[in-house]
Amino acid sequence: MGTYIVLSKLTDEGRKTMIKKPDRIKEVNGELEAMGGKIVNQYSLLGDYDFITILEAEDHEAITKMVMEIGSRGTIDTKTMAALPVDSLVKTLSGI
Question: Which domains does the chain have, with CATH numbers?
Answer without folding.
Answer: 2-94 (3.30.70.920)
